[in-house]
Specification:
Length: 343
């Protein structure tokens, strides 16, 4: 089973003309149509009625500016229909161009209203599995972004640079799809998908090798991240810019580093999901020890970030995985400048 099958809820992906390019296992379980039967067919063929799709029939593009949501009735293989809500979400290249659409089913029920297949389907993924898979998936994407970005700083033959740029664009696409699959998986588990509300575009976390900012510093930074690749890459990126780095592989180790430190850290970068102590717990202990330590939370899910008091707003920021090197450098410098009163 590949990563998308671990992550996918009731999701279908299409090209710009509305032809199915991916059909998730949850779609197979709910509708009976196998992926091999669905791929290549126009998505509207599977719907008895769908306001979101029907409004755009005859047009090669659905609404490419925003997510659109509406009720629908879907054909099940072998007879019978499902009533559901359908979201059509544009999928964008790194430069903002739409390359396809994601169709996500929410709250699917038999047309006679006799129960929710999302809650009973044996193929529905568990929420815990989805969270773990997405966490690992976003760690991998962050590492891919960073490695490619660092490679593109070197003098490379044109063809090698082209391949790396294409790989970085693919990693960005994968990040978008992970967010789409996650929303569907939360719906399967009976929870509202709130990470990317309707009408908001997913921000581009990747970039086609713009120059890295030259601003660095000499401040002391604690990096607490249980994924070795992500932690070591952040250490290399920030250390290269002059920052003094102390790293920890879990929350317990991070807090031990704080207790042993004779002077406060200027900034603590805390992954939300870590063994022993999670990022929120480390943050609470740091704040009791040091009032002026800036905090940067990391997570693959925006909804996992804790809320902070208005007094803390300038000292705490959040960065969603996967992120690019430029994103990390900018937010670190911004937090440190606020801490020192420069902004």
């Amino acid at each position: 089973m590949n990563a998308s099958e671990h992550l996918a809820g009731a999701v279908a992906l299409t090209d710009l003309q509305g032809r199915v390019t991916y059909w998730s296992p949850a779609m197979e379980a709910r509708l009976g149509w196998l992926q091999v039967e669905a791929v290549g067919r126009p998505l509207p063929e599977f719907f008895v009625d769908a306001a979101v799709i029907g409004a755009a029939k005859g047009s090669p593009l659905w609404d490419s500016t925003r997510e659109t949501v509406g009720p629908c009735a879907i054909r099940r293989k072998g007879g019978g229909n499902l009533d559901a809500w359908l979201s059509i979400i544009p999928l964008r290249e790194e430069r903002g161009e739409v390359y396809g659409f994601a169709a996500v089913l929410k709250g699917a029920r038999p047309a006679n209203g006799s129960g929710d297949l999302a809650a009973s389907s044996p193929a529905s993924p568990s929420l815990n599995m989805d969270r773990k898979a997405i966490h690992e998936f976003n760690n991998l994407l962050t590492s891919i972004h960073s490695c490619i970005d660092l490679s593109l700083r070197e003098e490379l033959p044109e063809r090698a640079a082209q391949f790396l740029t294409n790989a970085q664009s693919s990693a960005f696409r994968a990040a978008q799809l992970a967010n789409t699959f996650r929303s569907a998986a939360l719906e399967v588990a009976g929870r509202a998908a709130v990470a990317n509300p309707a009408g908001e575009e997913t921000p581009a976390t990747g970039h086609l090798h713009p120059p890295l900012p030259t601003a660095g510093g000499t401040e002391r930074i604690l990096i607490a991240e249980d994924d070795n690749s992500t932690r070591l890459l952040m250490k290399a990126i920030l250390g290269y810019r002059g920052y003094r780095i102390v790293d920890a592989a879990n929350g317990g180790d991070a807090w031990a580093r704080c207790e042993d430190s004779p002077v406060p850290f200027d900034l603590a970068i805390l992954d939300i999901n870590m063994p022993e102590l999670d990022g929120r717990e480390v943050y609470g202990r740091i704040r009791l020890k040091w009032k002026q330590c800036a905090i940067l939370f990391l997570s693959g899910s925006a909804e996992e970030f804790p809320s902070v008091s208005p007094d803390e707003a300038g000292m705490v920021e959040c960065l969603t995985k996967p992120f690019g090197n430029k994103d990390l450098l900018e937010v670190v410098r911004r937090l440190l400048d606020r801490r020192s009163g420069k902004v």
